[in-house]
Amino acid sequence: MPERRARKKANADRPAPNAQHPIQSIPVALTIAGSDSSAGAGIQADLKTFSALGVYGLTALTCVVAEIPGKVSRIEPVSAKMVREQIEVLSRNFPIAAIKTGLLCSGEIISAVAHAIRGTDILSVGRAGVPLVIDPVIVATSGDPLLDANAIESYTKELFPLATLITPNLLEAERFIGEPVRDLKSMRRAGTELARRFRASILLKGGHLAGDDAVDLLIADGKMTEFSAPFVRDVATHGTGCSYSAAITAGLASGLSLKSAIGRAKKFVTASITARLRWKSKSGRTLDALNHFSLEPQRSAAVRR
Prior knowledge:
Layout: H1 2-13, E1 28-36, H2 42-52, E2 56-68, E3 71-77, H3 80-93, E4 96-101, H4 107-118, E5 132-134, H5 149-159, E6 165-166, H6 170-177, H7 184-198, E7 201-205, E8 213-220, E9 223-230, H8 240-253, H9 258-274, E10 277-280, E11 286-289, H10 296-304
Parallel strand pairs: 1-2, 1-4, 4-5, 5-6, 6-7
Antiparallel strand pairs: 2-3, 7-8, 8-9, 10-11
């Protein structure tokens, strides 16, 4: 009899086959970027970041990159036609609330992305509609060049005019303005010039500066705001820029203001670096990766809202 009662209770606790489960609806964001085989950067990092911050991630793949932290082995692009088709089919069917771009691989793909965004009837993208965050990936963390001069020109002429926010690092800023950016004073000068030249909000990332703090500058609406966090040393990883811009995009998709989205993203990336993952390669080399889920309770809170 006790066993029968126990089985009866277990069956009562089991959900009925036709029971209705609650349906959740969370913000949707699109990343247009390359695939990183080591999953530390690119679309893989973007999707982890979106998930960690309670956003559903869509992807438009631009290229496939064979790499590990510190070394790019090979890059093969997706056709521009396929890139454009991915963007168009997603924009016709999903309620996209924010878009980010990462590695776009070639001038032809940059043009295809710009045309797809401009030609989308469903979305009004950029400063007057769905936020567009452009991470102008030109040089890998390892120093390997990822775009040629023609592609950089396509960025400035075709894609930047659509941007809500552009997030160059110091090396990329130097390529755009043709001057060295080596300290906070030159950062302020470069950020102001980039905002004037491209007529968009600029987040100039100062992670390559020497010092105890990682300082970033936002230039928006004629005002300059500084975001600072302790610099985490002895980390041999990549994908911080991808994750940072993805976290900003997630915040904008969730309805945060630009400043609030950047502030939260800065904390997210710093925590991901601090709680990094680490392995040893077969050759004994240290491999680090960002821990995108170090703030897991924050993701759960976002879903509950």
